[in-house]
Model the fold of this input.
Amino acid sequence: MPMHAAGGNSGDPGLPAGLVDAEHYPDLALRGGLVAAVVHLARERGVDLGEVEPLSGHGAAAYRTAGVDSDRGRIAVRLGLGRRGFDVSLDSSRGTFVWASGETDDLLQVVLLMDAWRRGALLREIGDRFPFMEYGRLSQGYEDGTPVQTQWDILLQDEDLADYREFFRQVRAHRRLGAMFPFVSHWVLRLAVDPFERDAGGIFVDPRPDGSYLVWSSKDETRRAAGDLGQAAEVAEALVRGL
Done:
């Protein structure tokens, strides 16, 4: 697939003054913006990135950002301000999570990273080849196909949530609830039906100081009281069926 450079031509700068910091990005000022510079380097290296385009065609973003699509989501690049730096984000094609992110001052490394990710490189390879990129346990869990199990482990090992640890263990042990994606928001346990999209619907379980629970769902916000976790699980399971 041919590459296209929106927002600048690799052979003709045509760059309005002030849109790119020429002191820190002389190569971008010369080429006509970030997209054009990425296209130029890719062509020099014989790398096919598909269509390269700005993340927005409006204002400065047309010259200071670049995006390339992959099977796993968009690779987004933005310029750092007041310094030379390319902020890179490997965004997911599902939901709002990020596979990995990082910053480098070497645009060639960004181009090679884009190529590697588009060709199917896994996170461990990305981390080894491009040490400026960082990713967490949950990203690895998504890649391994175990996001739910990984997220439960993360919650159980979170020292800031140590007081909730036994509560988490009991919920996780429940067949239906333990299969949902857990996260904590405002000290309330949220169990999402879709690990890739937390806003797709879910159950809220709020442990009270007296040992009781309040349970509700994203579809039915009526707080239902439960005297113990067993009752709370029964209420939650009934609410799951209504999602």
